[in-house]
Design goal:
Oligomer: single chain
Strand content: 5-15%
Strand order of the largest sheet: 3-2-1-6
Number of strands: 6
Helix content: 40-55%
Order of helices and strands: EEEHHHEHHEEH
Shape: elongated
Amino acid sequence: MSTSKSTTLTGLLDAANGRPVRRHPETGGYFVKASGGAHFWGRVLDAVVFVVGYTILAVILAVVRESMMNSGSALGYNDGLWLTLYVVLWFVGLFVYGVIWGSVGSVGDAAAGMRSVRIKNGTTAGAWLGGWRAICWSFFPFFVVMLIASAISGGGDDTWDPKFAAIDRRSGVAQGQQPVPDPKVVAAEQASEAERRNMPNLYGQRPDARP
């Protein structure tokens, strides 16, 4: 069950960047989501790093195959075997990168100053779940579309997984600063209080009150 956004909002703003401050429901700790732009470019960098790493490994595998073919090994000519190896290498590579991402943070996280955590309590995914989350990227063709939509909307949600959010590790809250009240929320509360006081008496306390 996903965490409703309304249960995490606090009516406060970050003192450093002015973005909404949220609260982890289970721990009560404050956090600020990474901006849409930071989240987008951080994940783009993660994709680039992984593709570059995979390409290097694939080239090494191709060199090994060429060497086997030159030596007359029958395995070097087995196209099905090598295609399978490339596919397995892709998913194994994703899992390994996800293990790093879920435990100590990815390259994109470090560059963007963010970290993917559970909304409910602020904990990271961990190595095992991080690996599987990374593999899920390969099964979501619309991941990039959602990522772009997240960037445009200014949100730092981890797109297809509503239980996680990318938090801003450079925010004032993350640096120990106290959040400040949101003027819009304060104004809305004052307007609501004024409206409540000016409402017609509904309980017969005024002599001219009507049922």
